[in-house]
Amino acid sequence: MLLAHILGLYRYPQVSHFSTSSLLSDRIQFRSFFRTVPSDAFQSRGLAQLVLHFGWTWIGLVAIDNDYGQQGIQMIKRDILKAGACVAFTETIISSQQDRNAPNIARVVKDSTATAVVIFSTDIDLVYLLDEMLRQNVTGKVWIASEAWATSAFLSVSKYSRLLYGTIGFALHSGSMPGFGGFLNRINPSMLIGNQWIKIFWEEVFSCKFQVPSNSSIKKCSGQESLENIRNSYNDISSLRVTYNIYTAVYVIAKALDDLGKCKKGYGPFTNGLCADIDSFEPWQLLHYMKKLRLTMSSGRQLFFNENGDPPAAYDIVNWQLSPGGQLRQVKVGSYDTSITSGNVFSINASHIEWRTEGPVPASVCSPSCPPGFRKAARTGKPLCCFQCIPCTYGEISNQTDSLQCYKCPWDMWPNPTQDHCVPKTEEFLSHEDPLGITLTATSISSSLVPVAIFGLFIYYRTTPIVRANNYYLSCLLLLSLMLCFLCSFLHWLPPV
Protein backbone atom coordinates (compact mmCIF):
# COMPACT_ATOMS: atom_id res chain seq x y z
CA MET A 1 0.00 0.00 0.00
CA LEU A 2 2.89 2.35 0.72
CA LEU A 3 4.25 1.85 -2.80
CA ALA A 4 0.82 2.44 -4.32
CA HIS A 5 0.50 5.67 -2.34
CA ILE A 6 3.94 6.94 -3.45
CA LEU A 7 3.33 6.07 -7.11
CA GLY A 8 -0.02 7.81 -6.92
CA LEU A 9 1.62 11.06 -5.83
CA TYR A 10 3.56 11.17 -9.11
CA ARG A 11 0.76 9.66 -11.23
CA TYR A 12 2.71 6.53 -12.14
CA PRO A 13 0.21 3.80 -13.15
CA GLN A 14 0.44 0.60 -11.11
CA VAL A 15 -1.40 -2.60 -12.06
CA SER A 16 -1.57 -5.32 -9.41
CA HIS A 17 -2.45 -8.94 -10.14
CA PHE A 18 -2.97 -10.06 -6.53
CA SER A 19 -3.82 -7.14 -4.21
CA THR A 20 -7.46 -7.54 -3.19
CA SER A 21 -7.76 -5.19 -0.20
CA SER A 22 -10.80 -2.94 -0.43
CA LEU A 23 -8.71 -0.09 1.05
CA LEU A 24 -6.94 0.21 -2.31
CA SER A 25 -10.21 1.38 -3.88
CA ASP A 26 -9.78 4.74 -2.13
CA ARG A 27 -9.01 7.05 -5.07
CA ILE A 28 -7.97 9.91 -2.80
CA GLN A 29 -5.03 7.92 -1.37
CA PHE A 30 -4.25 5.68 -4.36
CA ARG A 31 -4.78 7.83 -7.43
CA SER A 32 -3.04 5.66 -10.01
CA PHE A 33 -3.67 2.15 -8.67
CA PHE A 34 -5.39 -0.47 -10.85
CA ARG A 35 -5.80 -4.21 -10.43
CA THR A 36 -6.87 -7.21 -12.44
CA VAL A 37 -8.33 -9.02 -9.42
CA PRO A 38 -11.62 -8.06 -7.77
CA SER A 39 -11.74 -6.07 -4.56
CA ASP A 40 -12.54 -7.98 -1.38
CA ALA A 41 -15.70 -5.88 -1.13
CA PHE A 42 -17.14 -7.89 -4.03
CA GLN A 43 -15.96 -11.17 -2.52
CA SER A 44 -17.62 -10.44 0.81
CA ARG A 45 -20.85 -9.51 -0.93
CA GLY A 46 -20.73 -12.69 -3.01
CA LEU A 47 -19.93 -14.95 -0.05
CA ALA A 48 -22.85 -13.45 1.87
CA GLN A 49 -25.10 -14.19 -1.11
CA LEU A 50 -23.73 -17.74 -1.25
CA VAL A 51 -24.50 -18.28 2.44
CA LEU A 52 -28.05 -16.98 2.10
CA HIS A 53 -28.63 -18.99 -1.09
CA PHE A 54 -28.45 -22.22 0.92
CA GLY A 55 -30.65 -20.88 3.72
CA TRP A 56 -27.83 -20.69 6.26
CA THR A 57 -28.81 -18.11 8.88
CA TRP A 58 -26.48 -19.10 11.75
CA ILE A 59 -22.91 -18.47 10.60
CA GLY A 60 -19.49 -18.78 12.20
CA LEU A 61 -16.69 -16.42 11.11
CA VAL A 62 -12.93 -17.04 11.33
CA ALA A 63 -10.31 -14.60 10.00
CA ILE A 64 -6.58 -14.00 9.99
CA ASP A 65 -5.46 -10.95 11.97
CA ASN A 66 -4.29 -8.84 9.01
CA ASP A 67 -6.02 -6.31 6.78
CA TYR A 68 -7.18 -9.02 4.38
CA GLY A 69 -8.88 -11.09 7.06
CA GLN A 70 -10.25 -8.36 9.29
CA GLN A 71 -11.57 -6.17 6.48
CA GLY A 72 -13.10 -9.16 4.72
CA ILE A 73 -14.79 -10.58 7.81
CA GLN A 74 -16.24 -7.20 8.81
CA MET A 75 -17.73 -6.70 5.34
CA ILE A 76 -19.30 -10.15 5.15
CA LYS A 77 -20.60 -9.77 8.70
CA ARG A 78 -22.28 -6.51 7.71
CA ASP A 79 -23.86 -8.08 4.60
CA ILE A 80 -25.03 -11.17 6.53
CA LEU A 81 -26.69 -9.11 9.26
CA LYS A 82 -28.26 -6.80 6.68
CA ALA A 83 -29.89 -9.83 5.02
CA GLY A 84 -31.45 -10.98 8.32
CA ALA A 85 -29.02 -13.80 9.19
CA CYS A 86 -26.98 -13.97 12.41
CA VAL A 87 -23.36 -14.52 13.39
CA ALA A 88 -22.79 -17.31 15.92
CA PHE A 89 -19.16 -16.41 16.67
CA THR A 90 -16.22 -14.41 15.32
CA GLU A 91 -12.73 -15.79 15.97
CA THR A 92 -9.29 -14.54 14.92
CA ILE A 93 -6.23 -16.52 13.80
CA ILE A 94 -3.41 -14.71 15.63
CA SER A 95 -0.32 -14.95 13.42
CA SER A 96 2.01 -13.68 16.17
CA GLN A 97 1.24 -16.70 18.36
CA GLN A 98 3.06 -19.95 17.74
CA ASP A 99 -0.16 -21.99 17.73
CA ARG A 100 -2.12 -19.24 15.89
CA ASN A 101 -4.81 -19.39 18.62
CA ALA A 102 -5.88 -22.66 16.98
CA PRO A 103 -6.85 -24.62 20.15
CA ASN A 104 -9.31 -21.96 21.26
CA ILE A 105 -10.80 -21.50 17.76
CA ALA A 106 -11.22 -25.24 17.25
CA ARG A 107 -12.98 -25.56 20.61
CA VAL A 108 -15.37 -22.69 19.79
CA VAL A 109 -16.14 -24.14 16.34
CA LYS A 110 -16.71 -27.62 17.78
CA ASP A 111 -19.04 -26.42 20.54
CA SER A 112 -21.04 -24.07 18.31
CA THR A 113 -24.35 -25.15 16.79
CA ALA A 114 -23.44 -23.27 13.60
CA THR A 115 -22.74 -25.70 10.76
CA ALA A 116 -21.53 -23.16 8.16
CA VAL A 117 -18.21 -21.45 8.93
CA VAL A 118 -16.66 -18.74 6.73
CA ILE A 119 -12.84 -18.59 6.85
CA PHE A 120 -10.85 -15.58 5.61
CA SER A 121 -7.24 -16.71 5.77
CA THR A 122 -4.22 -17.80 3.77
CA ASP A 123 -3.54 -21.51 3.44
CA ILE A 124 -0.26 -21.29 5.37
CA ASP A 125 -1.91 -19.87 8.49
CA LEU A 126 -4.93 -22.14 8.11
CA VAL A 127 -2.79 -25.28 8.43
CA TYR A 128 -2.37 -24.73 12.18
CA LEU A 129 -6.13 -24.53 12.64
CA LEU A 130 -6.85 -27.58 10.47
CA ASP A 131 -4.30 -29.70 12.34
CA GLU A 132 -5.88 -28.68 15.65
CA MET A 133 -9.36 -29.52 14.34
CA LEU A 134 -8.14 -32.98 13.39
CA ARG A 135 -6.78 -33.41 16.92
CA GLN A 136 -10.06 -32.28 18.49
CA ASN A 137 -12.10 -34.34 15.98
CA VAL A 138 -14.20 -31.42 14.73
CA THR A 139 -16.83 -32.85 12.36
CA GLY A 140 -20.11 -31.95 10.73
CA LYS A 141 -19.07 -28.48 9.55
CA VAL A 142 -19.34 -26.88 6.12
CA TRP A 143 -16.34 -24.66 5.38
CA ILE A 144 -16.82 -21.59 3.19
CA ALA A 145 -13.49 -20.56 1.69
CA SER A 146 -12.23 -17.13 0.69
CA GLU A 147 -10.25 -16.89 -2.54
CA ALA A 148 -6.91 -16.96 -0.66
CA TRP A 149 -7.27 -20.71 0.04
CA ALA A 150 -10.23 -21.86 -2.07
CA THR A 151 -7.92 -23.54 -4.63
CA SER A 152 -4.93 -24.29 -2.41
CA ALA A 153 -2.94 -27.30 -3.59
CA PHE A 154 -1.18 -27.17 -0.23
CA LEU A 155 -4.42 -28.13 1.55
CA SER A 156 -5.73 -30.53 -1.12
CA VAL A 157 -3.87 -33.51 0.32
CA SER A 158 -5.40 -36.70 1.66
CA LYS A 159 -4.50 -35.68 5.22
CA TYR A 160 -7.28 -33.07 5.20
CA SER A 161 -9.74 -34.89 2.93
CA ARG A 162 -12.00 -36.01 5.79
CA LEU A 163 -12.13 -32.48 7.19
CA LEU A 164 -12.35 -30.35 4.03
CA TYR A 165 -14.48 -32.59 1.81
CA GLY A 166 -17.58 -30.62 0.80
CA THR A 167 -15.97 -27.19 1.25
CA ILE A 168 -17.42 -24.50 -0.99
CA GLY A 169 -15.88 -21.13 -1.75
CA PHE A 170 -14.91 -18.35 -4.11
CA ALA A 171 -11.87 -18.67 -6.38
CA LEU A 172 -10.31 -16.15 -8.73
CA HIS A 173 -11.78 -16.47 -12.20
CA SER A 174 -9.68 -18.69 -14.45
CA GLY A 175 -8.95 -18.05 -18.10
CA SER A 176 -6.96 -19.32 -21.05
CA MET A 177 -3.69 -17.86 -22.33
CA PRO A 178 -3.29 -18.58 -26.06
CA GLY A 179 0.11 -20.09 -26.83
CA PHE A 180 1.16 -20.46 -23.20
CA GLY A 181 0.95 -24.26 -23.19
CA GLY A 182 3.15 -24.52 -26.26
CA PHE A 183 5.67 -22.14 -24.73
CA LEU A 184 5.94 -24.26 -21.57
CA ASN A 185 6.48 -27.44 -23.59
CA ARG A 186 9.27 -25.82 -25.64
CA ILE A 187 11.35 -24.91 -22.59
CA ASN A 188 14.64 -26.83 -22.32
CA PRO A 189 17.95 -26.49 -20.42
CA SER A 190 19.68 -24.83 -23.37
CA MET A 191 17.65 -21.65 -22.83
CA LEU A 192 19.72 -18.85 -21.31
CA ILE A 193 16.89 -17.29 -19.27
CA GLY A 194 16.52 -19.07 -15.95
CA ASN A 195 18.98 -21.75 -17.01
CA GLN A 196 19.96 -22.87 -13.52
CA TRP A 197 16.35 -23.14 -12.37
CA ILE A 198 15.40 -25.05 -15.51
CA LYS A 199 18.17 -27.58 -14.88
CA ILE A 200 16.94 -28.25 -11.35
CA PHE A 201 13.38 -28.61 -12.64
CA TRP A 202 14.55 -30.88 -15.47
CA GLU A 203 16.36 -33.24 -13.12
CA GLU A 204 13.28 -33.47 -10.88
CA VAL A 205 10.79 -34.15 -13.69
CA PHE A 206 12.85 -36.68 -15.67
CA SER A 207 14.62 -38.33 -12.69
CA CYS A 208 18.07 -37.71 -14.12
CA LYS A 209 21.22 -35.66 -13.44
CA PHE A 210 23.33 -33.45 -15.70
CA GLN A 211 26.46 -34.24 -13.69
CA VAL A 212 26.72 -37.99 -13.11
CA PRO A 213 29.75 -39.77 -11.58
CA SER A 214 31.24 -42.47 -13.78
CA ASN A 215 30.35 -45.30 -11.40
CA SER A 216 26.77 -44.08 -10.71
CA SER A 217 23.59 -45.82 -11.92
CA ILE A 218 21.67 -42.53 -12.14
CA LYS A 219 20.47 -41.67 -15.63
CA LYS A 220 22.16 -38.70 -17.27
CA CYS A 221 20.02 -35.86 -18.62
CA SER A 222 20.49 -35.17 -22.31
CA GLY A 223 18.49 -31.95 -22.34
CA GLN A 224 16.48 -33.24 -25.28
CA GLU A 225 13.75 -34.90 -23.23
CA SER A 226 10.24 -33.74 -24.18
CA LEU A 227 7.82 -32.09 -21.77
CA GLU A 228 4.85 -32.73 -24.05
CA ASN A 229 4.24 -36.19 -22.59
CA ILE A 230 4.62 -35.05 -18.98
CA ARG A 231 1.44 -34.37 -16.99
CA ASN A 232 1.98 -32.49 -13.73
CA SER A 233 1.14 -29.20 -12.06
CA TYR A 234 3.85 -27.47 -14.12
CA ASN A 235 2.15 -27.80 -17.49
CA ASP A 236 -1.43 -28.10 -16.27
CA ILE A 237 -3.02 -24.99 -17.78
CA SER A 238 -6.63 -26.14 -17.40
CA SER A 239 -7.37 -23.64 -14.63
CA LEU A 240 -4.93 -20.75 -14.53
CA ARG A 241 -5.96 -18.19 -11.94
CA VAL A 242 -3.13 -16.09 -10.50
CA THR A 243 -1.08 -16.68 -13.66
CA TYR A 244 -3.99 -15.50 -15.76
CA ASN A 245 -4.24 -12.29 -13.73
CA ILE A 246 -0.52 -11.63 -14.25
CA TYR A 247 -1.05 -12.12 -17.98
CA THR A 248 -4.04 -9.77 -17.87
CA ALA A 249 -2.05 -7.09 -16.02
CA VAL A 250 0.70 -7.16 -18.66
CA TYR A 251 -1.92 -7.17 -21.42
CA VAL A 252 -3.61 -4.10 -19.91
CA ILE A 253 -0.35 -2.10 -19.92
CA ALA A 254 0.42 -3.24 -23.47
CA LYS A 255 -3.05 -2.21 -24.67
CA ALA A 256 -2.76 1.22 -23.01
CA LEU A 257 0.65 1.76 -24.64
CA ASP A 258 -0.76 0.64 -27.97
CA ASP A 259 -3.64 3.13 -27.68
CA LEU A 260 -1.17 5.87 -26.74
CA GLY A 261 1.02 5.10 -29.77
CA LYS A 262 -1.94 5.08 -32.19
CA CYS A 263 -2.97 8.64 -31.30
CA LYS A 264 -3.34 10.89 -34.37
CA LYS A 265 -1.91 14.37 -34.10
CA GLY A 266 -4.58 17.01 -33.81
CA TYR A 267 -7.09 14.46 -32.50
CA GLY A 268 -5.37 13.62 -29.23
CA PRO A 269 -7.07 13.62 -25.82
CA PHE A 270 -4.90 16.38 -24.39
CA THR A 271 -4.94 20.18 -24.73
CA ASN A 272 -5.31 21.41 -28.34
CA GLY A 273 -5.65 17.81 -29.55
CA LEU A 274 -2.07 16.95 -28.64
CA CYS A 275 -0.86 13.35 -28.44
CA ALA A 276 1.72 11.80 -26.14
CA ASP A 277 5.08 10.80 -27.62
CA ILE A 278 5.43 7.03 -27.37
CA ASP A 279 9.19 7.42 -26.82
CA SER A 280 9.00 10.09 -24.11
CA PHE A 281 5.54 10.26 -22.57
CA GLU A 282 4.69 11.40 -19.06
CA PRO A 283 3.24 8.93 -16.50
CA TRP A 284 -0.01 10.90 -16.24
CA GLN A 285 -0.49 10.57 -20.01
CA LEU A 286 -0.38 6.78 -19.81
CA LEU A 287 -2.65 7.01 -16.77
CA HIS A 288 -5.25 8.74 -18.95
CA TYR A 289 -5.33 5.78 -21.37
CA MET A 290 -5.47 3.33 -18.48
CA LYS A 291 -8.64 4.95 -17.17
CA LYS A 292 -10.29 4.84 -20.61
CA LEU A 293 -9.18 1.30 -21.41
CA ARG A 294 -11.72 -1.31 -22.48
CA LEU A 295 -10.73 -4.60 -24.06
CA THR A 296 -12.10 -8.07 -24.74
CA MET A 297 -10.16 -10.98 -23.27
CA SER A 298 -9.71 -14.39 -24.89
CA SER A 299 -12.62 -15.71 -22.80
CA GLY A 300 -14.94 -13.10 -24.29
CA ARG A 301 -15.21 -11.10 -21.05
CA GLN A 302 -15.02 -7.32 -21.17
CA LEU A 303 -12.27 -5.79 -19.04
CA PHE A 304 -12.35 -2.17 -17.93
CA PHE A 305 -11.75 -0.19 -14.75
CA ASN A 306 -14.34 1.72 -12.75
CA GLU A 307 -13.70 5.08 -11.10
CA ASN A 308 -11.83 3.31 -8.27
CA GLY A 309 -9.52 1.33 -10.55
CA ASP A 310 -11.37 -1.94 -9.94
CA PRO A 311 -12.28 -4.36 -12.75
CA PRO A 312 -15.65 -6.13 -12.93
CA ALA A 313 -15.68 -8.79 -10.21
CA ALA A 314 -15.57 -12.34 -11.51
CA TYR A 315 -15.22 -15.42 -9.31
CA ASP A 316 -15.60 -19.14 -9.83
CA ILE A 317 -17.60 -20.94 -7.14
CA VAL A 318 -15.70 -24.16 -6.41
CA ASN A 319 -16.59 -27.26 -4.43
CA TRP A 320 -13.97 -29.52 -2.84
CA GLN A 321 -14.58 -33.07 -3.98
CA LEU A 322 -12.66 -36.31 -3.65
CA SER A 323 -10.69 -37.62 -6.61
CA PRO A 324 -10.38 -41.40 -7.20
CA GLY A 325 -6.91 -41.26 -5.62
CA GLY A 326 -8.23 -39.83 -2.36
CA GLN A 327 -6.92 -36.34 -3.04
CA LEU A 328 -9.11 -33.27 -2.92
CA ARG A 329 -9.89 -31.40 -6.10
CA GLN A 330 -11.74 -28.16 -6.74
CA VAL A 331 -14.68 -28.47 -9.13
CA LYS A 332 -16.38 -25.38 -10.53
CA VAL A 333 -20.09 -25.42 -9.64
CA GLY A 334 -21.07 -21.81 -10.27
CA SER A 335 -19.94 -18.25 -10.82
CA TYR A 336 -20.25 -14.72 -9.51
CA ASP A 337 -19.75 -12.13 -12.26
CA THR A 338 -20.77 -8.49 -11.89
CA SER A 339 -20.12 -7.78 -15.58
CA ILE A 340 -23.24 -9.75 -16.54
CA THR A 341 -25.90 -7.20 -17.45
CA SER A 342 -28.84 -9.62 -17.50
CA GLY A 343 -29.07 -9.45 -13.71
CA ASN A 344 -28.03 -13.07 -13.08
CA VAL A 345 -24.79 -12.07 -11.35
CA PHE A 346 -24.87 -15.10 -9.03
CA SER A 347 -25.42 -18.56 -10.53
CA ILE A 348 -24.83 -21.99 -9.06
CA ASN A 349 -25.58 -25.57 -10.09
CA ALA A 350 -26.56 -27.19 -6.79
CA SER A 351 -26.85 -30.65 -8.38
CA HIS A 352 -23.07 -30.73 -8.99
CA ILE A 353 -22.20 -29.99 -5.36
CA GLU A 354 -20.99 -32.81 -3.11
CA TRP A 355 -21.66 -32.33 0.60
CA ARG A 356 -19.84 -34.28 3.28
CA THR A 357 -23.25 -35.49 4.50
CA GLU A 358 -23.89 -37.09 1.07
CA GLY A 359 -27.48 -35.88 1.19
CA PRO A 360 -29.42 -32.64 0.97
CA VAL A 361 -27.93 -29.25 1.79
CA PRO A 362 -26.79 -29.25 5.45
CA ALA A 363 -28.76 -26.89 7.66
CA SER A 364 -27.10 -24.14 9.66
CA VAL A 365 -29.74 -22.46 11.80
CA CYS A 366 -29.93 -21.47 15.45
CA SER A 367 -33.57 -22.58 15.75
CA PRO A 368 -35.60 -24.85 13.43
CA SER A 369 -38.31 -23.18 11.39
CA CYS A 370 -41.71 -22.71 12.98
CA PRO A 371 -44.36 -24.62 10.99
CA PRO A 372 -47.76 -23.12 10.12
CA GLY A 373 -49.94 -22.96 13.20
CA PHE A 374 -47.09 -21.50 15.26
CA ARG A 375 -45.46 -18.10 15.55
CA LYS A 376 -41.90 -17.05 16.31
CA ALA A 377 -41.10 -15.54 19.68
CA ALA A 378 -37.71 -14.08 20.56
CA ARG A 379 -35.55 -15.62 23.25
CA THR A 380 -34.36 -13.20 25.88
CA GLY A 381 -30.72 -12.26 25.38
CA LYS A 382 -30.40 -14.21 22.11
CA PRO A 383 -30.00 -13.01 18.48
CA LEU A 384 -33.10 -12.73 16.31
CA CYS A 385 -32.22 -16.02 14.58
CA CYS A 386 -32.63 -17.84 17.89
CA PHE A 387 -36.32 -18.08 18.73
CA GLN A 388 -38.97 -20.42 20.08
CA CYS A 389 -42.14 -21.58 18.36
CA ILE A 390 -45.38 -20.80 20.20
CA PRO A 391 -48.75 -22.29 19.11
CA CYS A 392 -51.36 -19.80 17.97
CA THR A 393 -54.01 -19.05 20.57
CA TYR A 394 -57.54 -20.44 20.16
CA GLY A 395 -59.36 -18.77 17.27
CA GLU A 396 -56.15 -17.70 15.46
CA ILE A 397 -54.08 -19.21 12.65
CA SER A 398 -50.73 -18.77 10.86
CA ASN A 399 -50.47 -20.13 7.32
CA GLN A 400 -46.78 -19.48 6.66
CA THR A 401 -43.53 -20.96 7.90
CA ASP A 402 -41.74 -18.75 10.44
CA SER A 403 -44.75 -16.48 10.85
CA LEU A 404 -44.16 -13.56 13.21
CA GLN A 405 -47.77 -13.36 14.35
CA CYS A 406 -51.08 -15.22 14.24
CA TYR A 407 -54.28 -13.89 12.70
CA LYS A 408 -57.94 -14.20 13.74
CA CYS A 409 -60.39 -15.98 11.46
CA PRO A 410 -63.42 -14.11 10.03
CA TRP A 411 -66.63 -14.25 12.10
CA ASP A 412 -68.15 -17.00 9.93
CA MET A 413 -65.02 -19.21 10.07
CA TRP A 414 -62.86 -20.91 12.65
CA PRO A 415 -59.39 -22.58 12.66
CA ASN A 416 -58.85 -26.14 11.52
CA PRO A 417 -57.31 -28.57 14.07
CA THR A 418 -53.71 -27.68 13.04
CA GLN A 419 -54.51 -23.96 13.06
CA ASP A 420 -52.88 -23.33 9.68
CA HIS A 421 -55.99 -22.12 7.83
CA CYS A 422 -59.59 -21.08 8.47
CA VAL A 423 -62.56 -23.28 7.57
CA PRO A 424 -66.27 -22.36 7.37
CA LYS A 425 -68.19 -22.95 10.58
CA THR A 426 -70.40 -26.06 10.51
CA GLU A 427 -74.18 -25.35 10.62
CA GLU A 428 -75.73 -27.41 13.43
CA PHE A 429 -79.49 -27.22 14.17
CA LEU A 430 -82.26 -29.53 15.39
CA SER A 431 -83.87 -31.53 12.59
CA HIS A 432 -87.47 -32.71 12.71
CA GLU A 433 -86.18 -36.09 11.49
CA ASP A 434 -84.12 -36.69 14.63
CA PRO A 435 -85.71 -38.74 17.46
CA LEU A 436 -85.51 -35.71 19.74
CA GLY A 437 -87.06 -33.56 17.03
CA ILE A 438 -89.94 -36.00 16.56
CA THR A 439 -90.55 -36.09 20.32
CA LEU A 440 -90.52 -32.30 20.61
CA THR A 441 -92.79 -31.96 17.57
CA ALA A 442 -95.37 -34.35 18.98
CA THR A 443 -95.21 -32.69 22.40
CA SER A 444 -95.52 -29.18 20.94
CA ILE A 445 -98.46 -30.03 18.72
CA SER A 446 -100.34 -32.00 21.39
CA SER A 447 -99.68 -29.35 24.01
CA SER A 448 -100.79 -26.55 21.69
CA LEU A 449 -104.15 -28.34 21.17
CA VAL A 450 -105.06 -27.89 24.84
CA PRO A 451 -105.30 -24.05 24.73
CA VAL A 452 -106.98 -24.34 21.31
CA ALA A 453 -109.69 -26.59 22.79
CA ILE A 454 -110.19 -24.26 25.76
CA PHE A 455 -110.26 -21.31 23.36
CA GLY A 456 -113.08 -23.06 21.45
CA LEU A 457 -115.04 -23.64 24.66
CA PHE A 458 -114.64 -20.00 25.58
CA ILE A 459 -116.09 -18.95 22.24
CA TYR A 460 -118.96 -21.43 22.51
CA TYR A 461 -119.89 -20.34 26.07
CA ARG A 462 -119.01 -16.68 25.66
CA THR A 463 -122.47 -15.51 26.84
CA THR A 464 -122.42 -17.47 30.07
CA PRO A 465 -121.88 -15.60 33.35
CA ILE A 466 -118.77 -17.63 34.31
CA VAL A 467 -116.97 -16.81 31.03
CA ARG A 468 -117.88 -13.15 31.33
CA ALA A 469 -116.66 -13.15 34.90
CA ASN A 470 -113.16 -14.34 33.71
CA ASN A 471 -112.59 -11.37 31.38
CA TYR A 472 -113.45 -13.03 28.09
CA TYR A 473 -111.18 -11.00 25.78
CA LEU A 474 -108.12 -11.18 27.98
CA SER A 475 -108.56 -14.91 28.49
CA CYS A 476 -108.80 -15.47 24.72
CA LEU A 477 -105.57 -13.49 24.23
CA LEU A 478 -103.77 -15.53 26.87
CA LEU A 479 -104.94 -18.81 25.33
CA LEU A 480 -103.72 -17.78 21.88
CA SER A 481 -100.36 -16.69 23.35
CA LEU A 482 -100.00 -19.99 25.15
CA MET A 483 -100.68 -21.87 21.92
CA LEU A 484 -98.00 -19.85 20.10
CA CYS A 485 -95.55 -20.54 22.90
CA PHE A 486 -95.92 -24.26 22.34
CA LEU A 487 -95.50 -23.81 18.58
CA CYS A 488 -92.41 -21.53 18.80
CA SER A 489 -90.17 -24.58 19.34
CA PHE A 490 -90.47 -25.18 15.57
CA LEU A 491 -88.14 -22.17 15.06
CA HIS A 492 -85.20 -24.27 16.34
CA TRP A 493 -85.50 -26.53 13.30
CA LEU A 494 -84.71 -23.70 10.86
CA PRO A 495 -81.08 -23.21 9.60
CA PRO A 496 -79.22 -20.44 11.48
CA VAL A 497 -78.91 -17.07 9.78
UniProtKB/TrEMBL annotation:
Instruction: Enumerate the transmembrane spans.
Output: 436-460, 472-494
Which keywords label this protein? Cell membrane, G-protein coupled receptor, Glycoprotein, Membrane, Receptor, Signal, Transducer, Transmembrane, Transmembrane helix
Q: Which SUPFAM superfamilies match?
A: Periplasmic binding protein-like I
PROSITE patterns linked = G_PROTEIN_RECEP_F3_4
The answer on whether this UniProt entry bears the keyword Membrane reads yes
- How does the entry describe its membrane topology? Multi-pass membrane protein
Location in the cell? Cell membrane
Tell me a GO cellular component.
plasma membrane
Q: Which residues form a coiled coil?
A: none
Q: What is its main location?
A: membrane
Q: Where is the G-protein coupled receptors family 3 profile domain?
A: 436-497
Annotated Gene Ontology MF terms?
G protein-coupled receptor activity
Q: What family name appears in the similarity comment?
A: Belongs to the G-protein coupled receptor 3 family.
What's this protein's name?
A: G-protein coupled receptors family 3 profile domain-containing protein
Q: What is the organism field in this record? A: Engystomops pustulosus
